[in-house]
What we know:
Helix content is 53%, strand content 24%. The chain is built from 3 helices and 5 strands. Strand 2 (81-88) and strand 3 form a beta hairpin.
Amino acid sequence: MAGERDVVVRFQVRGRSARRWVIFAVITFGSLFMVIGLILAGVSVSYLTDAKRADGTVVALDWRTDHSSSSRRTRAHDEPAAYPVVEFTPAGGTSLQFRDSTGSNPPSYEVGEQVEVLYRADSPEDAKINGFASLWLAPIIFGGIGLLVAGIGTTVALVTRRRRS
């Protein structure tokens, strides 16, 4: 009977240790996503402080479907997203076109719509539309997911610790 009791005790210790590692991994994962969100926000702020501004016109909508997922079911139901193609003229330069990095369905922009373009003088081909989604969507998604996951992990860790006390 004593031998069986040792096995049970060892199993419980291993289970508690595994739980700690899972909680640690969840908090680490969430924290990593928060850091990525902060870095992306810093990149957007840096871009805004260095960017030149120009008027642009949406000249086309580039409809694309993302097929990066390996699931056939997901691919079959993917809806295409409209990425605005914008034409603008940087200061002292010739007319350029770029496809914005953020697409949506329904489209956020219409052909012929006037938009403000942000670009760096040393690389005007890497321009962006001065809009919320183009500048802040990725930082908010990464930061929000990170905050949520790290918050859940931290809450579970605190509740687990209080139960043991």
